[in-house]
# Entry
Amino acid sequence: MKFKYLIFACFLAVSFVSKGQDSYSMLPSLLPERLLGGFINEEGELQLIVSKDYLVIESQLYFFNEIVVDGDSYNITAVHNFDVKYFSLITRNSDVFLDESYKLTKLRKIIAPNSSVFPKQMQGRWISDNNLIEIWEDSLVYLNETYQLDNLISTAENKYFFILYEGGKYYLSNLEEIQDKAHITIYLEEPLLLQKETFFQRHKTLIIIFLGLLLMFAIFLGIRWKMRTTQKRESIKRKLIETQLRGIRSQMNPHFLFNALSAIQNLINKGHNDKANHYLTEFSLLMRSTLEKTEKGLVPLADEIESIKKYLELEKLRFNFEYNIKVAHCIDMYLTEIPAMLIQPFVENSIIHGLKESDGKKILEIVFNTEGEDLICTIDDNGVGINAAKKGKKKTYQRNGFGIKLAHDRISMINESHKTNSKVVIEDKSMNNKGITGTLVKVSIPLKY
# Structure
């Protein structure tokens, strides 16, 4: 430290002694305009910046201590902290030379004027791992401190040196290039190497939120498209099943109508014309009801029971039997719906293959009840039983059992169409009790579709 002070004193003494009669001291504010600005060497590198407040020599900022003019030579003593720099600026004709004692460098003044405004491409946010700097039009903000731009010099295209001022101090910085990977070196308390903040870095949070929302929207559209595709496929499938069901019901109706007409024919053959006319009227009503049901998938339970009653009354014309239909109090016959013409084939089978072939008192009981979420219909007869019917008249049973097969097919399609679990269980009562004959049919269908 003492050595530096000694060198500084020697320089001052030499400068004082060396002054001739033509030499004189000059204030920095009186420097000629030709010496103010930025100067580059023959390689195009920035060699010197001269202002009325400071000098920049080879990327180092100095302050004036003394200027001695000796002819065309400006002998300058500059200091930076305790570092002393002695050099001369020599003007010869239009040329300027930097004399550093150990070398002489020819300088060329930068034509572009100095600026106190940052160019547009420099303005914005610059970041490093742990630092952020914001450059505005004429200032720079770092760690909540604002540094004013004092001077900016461009040495080449997109290459800048600039001096910042804050709190009585000057700071030299440079921008090496402005491209996609532009980086800037700021010399404040310590050198900071920063890169220009990209659009993604600046709007990172908003972009992530936007992409998240876009992803959610895409997922929503995908789910919606899948649901619509599934619904469309299910709709087509349901229409196909309904078409098949209508076909089955259309096949059941002639089968049922043939048996009903046979009963009326039996009356006519026996000469009971009045009864035949009466039941022919009943038959016409039943036929109308049956044809209307052909186009319907579901009908109220009350309508189905009414059709069954009309059919049973017609069958009683051919032979004598008793029947009883019971509906549980918990069932609303007008609001509860069942597949049209589903129960009738089982009732018909009980009469033709069970009661008709048996001796003694013939009884048929039809009961509607509920079990959980299902509607249960039981058709109970005391006829010969299904096993005996199959053995006794095998060909007749197979032919007349066509309605049962269609009923089973309908139940399978209804389950597929409505995603239900309808089923039919047919039991020969003699299998559990040898002294009892007859057939018990249990049809289970949902209360709601």
Summary: Residues 204-269 form the longest helix (66 residues). The CA atoms of residues 411 and 422 lie 6 Å apart. Confidence is low (pLDDT under 50) at residues 1-20. The two ends are 101 Å apart (CA to CA).
